[in-house]
Amino acid sequence: MYKIGVIGDRADVSGFIALGYGVFDVSSADEARAVLKNLVKQGEGDESADRYAIVFITEKYATLLADDIAHYTSRTLPAITSLPEAAADGKMSFGMKKLKSHVEKAVGADILFRDN
């Protein structure tokens, strides 16, 4: 069975427990990197085993782990994406730009927000 994981600070990810997601609260980029590596490694295991199909990473850590995430993008599982945060200056955040790019690629058109 496939699972969904969420990596980030406890305050940002604890609410996902109620949805049944695997929640991994971390307090540093190194910790987040180790968790991500472990989740990807689980995906390489036995096809009948529980595997993470989707891993969400809070924008704070996705920004810090951009190179690591890019390294895993060629893999089928897990799909790794960031959880966007609202930008304080009203402009589109890093996470929203990435989400917008993924949606444009999947749909073939910009159906989300326009850049400020």
How does the helix and strand content classify structurally? alpha/beta
- What is the overall pLDDT average? 82
| Unreliable segments of 5+ consecutive residues | none
Count, helices: 5
What is the first-to-last residue Cα distance?
41 Å
Helix residue percentage: 25-40%
| Rg on CA atoms, Å | 15 Å
| CA-based shape | globular
Q: How many runs of DSSP E, i.e. beta strands?
A: 4
Largest sheet: 4 strands, parallel
Q: What is the string of helix and strand elements? A: EHEHEHHEH
Q: How do the strands line up in the largest sheet?
A: 2-1-3-4
User: What fraction strand?
Assistant: 15-25%
Explain what you see.
- By secondary structure, the protein is α/β, with parallel strands linked by helices.
- The protein contains five helices and four strands; from the N terminus they run βαβαβααβα.
- It has helices at 10-13, 29-43, 59-64, 66-72, 94-107, and strands spanning 2-8, 22-25, 51-58, 79-83.
- Strands 2-1-3-4 form a four-stranded parallel beta sheet.
- β1, α1 (10-13) and β2 (22-25) form a beta-alpha-beta unit.
- The longest helix has 15 residues, at 29-43.
- It is globular and about 35 Å long.
- It starts with a strand and ends in a 9-residue tail after the last helix.
- The model has no long low-confidence stretch (mean pLDDT 82).
